UniProtKB/TrEMBL annotation:
Lineage: Eukaryota, Viridiplantae, Streptophyta, Embryophyta, Tracheophyta
Keywords: Calcium, Disulfide bond, Glycoprotein, Heme, Hydrogen peroxide, Iron, Metal-binding, Oxidoreductase, Peroxidase, Secreted, Signal
Binding site for Ca(2+) 2: D265, D273
GO molecular function: heme binding; lactoperoxidase activity; metal ion binding
Major localization listed first in the record, in broad terms: secreted
Catalytic activity line of the entry: 2 a phenolic donor + H2O2 = 2 a phenolic radical donor + 2 H2O
Protein name: Peroxidase
BP GO terms, sorted: hydrogen peroxide catabolic process; response to oxidative stress
Disulfide bonds, paired cysteine numbers: C45-C126, C78-C83, C132-C341, C211-C243
Organism: Cucurbita moschata (Winter crookneck squash)
InterPro entries the UniProt entry points to: Haem_peroxidase, Haem_peroxidase_sf, Peroxidase_pln, Peroxidases_AS, Peroxidases_heam-ligand_BS, Secretory_peroxidase
Superkingdom per UniProt: Eukaryota
A cellular-component GO term for this protein: extracellular region
Family statement: Belongs to the peroxidase family. Ascorbate peroxidase subfamily.
């Protein structure tokens, strides 16, 4: 056989092997999650959801601020190549910088230790059965319920990715400077609607943001005015007090890095509710992206509806979260069930 042909055969064989085990073919096996189902571990690890829920409840009892971080962690995992626990990896076989290390995830991403704890317990009870991706989905549901929404079932059957690349983060996640068009383009690419985008952004009714993320709205808004005129005056003054300008940062804060965290919704920082949409309409949002949703004619009406109908928003939120949980998942024989959520199996 001539050299070129040998090369082709070897390459084809490699691809087939690689795609059969699906350890390195990122595109293979990703799907819309229609084959996920509630009660997936009913026979293989019936105690899985309860173990995850008990440990999550204990962790949230100690630190209620973690609920918001779990929701954000899940969103960021699902939007960067699917709900495949790629955000949990500390390293991969390729040695490339990982998702966790990307500035798009930032230093405020939390929840990894809780997932480690749950995984360790589940590996003891039912080794190599429950995926890190499903654990992440379960505890996001638990954090949502802890924050005041009614219980809902979350389907399972996801498998874990062996790929995690910082380079995939930026173009897959919305940023606070984006227009509604730009954010909608990302959500649409993930198979989600603009309505679901507005609904899920109600997650900003809990949790915190670093001053550095929004302080241009208080100090450096435009050439004609330093403060964003959309910010309600009293709220803007509160924000200036919380986030002093760089030359007035007190010594204790400077010692901590100078970037304070401010509640997204100080009126009910631990309760997931539609108060966020009311605040959006009153000029009391931190993120420019949220303000853009309140202003843009395509989303303003949805914001108004969600502000007016708390029960409807709750229902839509849990439904949209389930839809999010199905984005580009690995199922069947794709990916793997990691033994340790921070590392691929060797
Ligand atoms: C639509 C566009 C979105 C943008 C531009 C955006 C941006 C941000 C930013 C910049 C932060 C602050 C991070 C920091 O300071 O470290 C944040 C926090 C947060 N985001 Fe979003 N986000 C969006 C949608 C979502 C969605 C869909 C969810 C959930 C499903 C979500 C959940 C959260 C939560 C819960 C926090 C608080 C996290 C904590 O306290 O640890 N966000 N978001």
């Amino acid at each position: 056989m001539e050299v070129g042909r040998v090369g082709q055969v070897t390459c084809a064989a490699f691809l087939i092997a690689c795609c059969l085990t699906v350890r390195t073919c990122s595109a293979v096996g990703k799907n819309k999650g229609r084959n996920l189902r509630a009660g997936f571990y009913q026979y293989t690890c019936p105690q899985a959801e309860k173990i995850a829920a008990d440990l999550t409840s204990a962790a949230l009892g100690q630190d209620p601020t973690l609920a918001a971080s779990l929701l954000r962690l899940f969103f960021h995992d699902c939007f960067v190549n699917g709900c495949d626990a790629s955000i949990l990896l500390d390293s991969t076989l390729s040695g490339e910088p990982i998702e966790k290390a990307s500035l798009g995830n930032g230093k405020t991403m939390r929840g990894f230790e809780l997932i480690d704890e749950i995984k360790a317990k589940l590996e003891n009870e039912c080794p190599e059965v429950v995926s890190c991706a499903d654990i992440t989905a379960y505890i996001t549901r638990d954090a949502t319920v802890f924050s005041g929404l009614p219980y809902f079932k979350i389907p399972a059957g996801r498998r874990d990715s062996v790929i995690s690349r910082a380079a995939d983060v930026f173009h897959n996640l919305p940023t606070p400077a984006m227009t509604v068009d730009e954010m909608a383009a990302i959500f649409t690419r993930k198979g989600m609607t603009v309505d679901e985008m507005v609904t899920l952004t109600g997650a900003h009714s809990i949790g915190k943001v670093q001053c550095s993320v929004f302080e241009d709205r208080i100090y450096n808004y435009s050439e004609t005015g330093s403060r964003d005129p959309k910010l309600q005056a009293a709220y803007a003054s509160y924000l200036s007090a919380m986030c002093p300008p760089a030359d007035a940062v007190p010594a204790d804060l400077a010692a901590e890095g100078g970037d304070r965290l401010v509640y997204l919704d100080p009126s009910s920082p631990f309760r997931l509710d539609n108060s966020f949409y009311l605040r959006m309409r009153e000029g009391k949002t931190l993120l420019q992206s949220d303000q853009n949703m309140a202003d843009d004619p395509r989303t303003a009406e949805l914001v108004g509806k969600m502000a007016a109908e708390p029960k409807m928003w709750m229902k839509k939120f849990t439904r949209a979260l389930v839809r999010l949980s199905r984005v580009d998942v690995l199922t069947g024989n794709a990916g793997e069930i990691r033994k340790n959520c921070r590392a691929v199996n060797l």
